[in-house]
Amino acid sequence: MKIFFAIFLLLCGTVQAKPFADGQPEAGKKLFDKHQCNSCHSAKMGGDGNVIFTRPSHKVKDSLQLEAQINACSLNVSDALSAQDKLDLAAYLNKHFYKFK
Q: What is the Cα–Cα distance from 70 to 85, expressed in whole angstroms?
């Protein structure tokens, strides 16, 4: 019985909620466009700014790193981004580029 309970706890611990489930990807896309995020990415990548998300050497490897990168990039935005804005951006980027589960 103890082994069954231990296995049950282990399995329960591995179940995670979908990252950015409370974010709205459509709102994130509007913010991405409004703040011209891709203009900075294009300058860094020398062309198509979306390559920043899909290049083999991209920095973001999981949902926590995506959150950290959005926080860092938000310093480039003249308007302060709310926590919900950042969540929406993360949901948009995850849906269209990263696909973290």
A: 10
Type of residue found at 45: M
With left for phi above 0 and alpha for psi between -120 and 50, is residue 84 left, alpha or beta?
Answer: alpha
Structure pTM? 0.79
- Contact at 8 Å (CB) between 96 and 25? yes
- Token pair for residue 13? 């611990």
Q: Which residues of the chain have pLDDT under 50?
A: 4-6, 8-10, 12-14
Q: Are 99 and 18 in contact (CB under 8 A)?
A: no
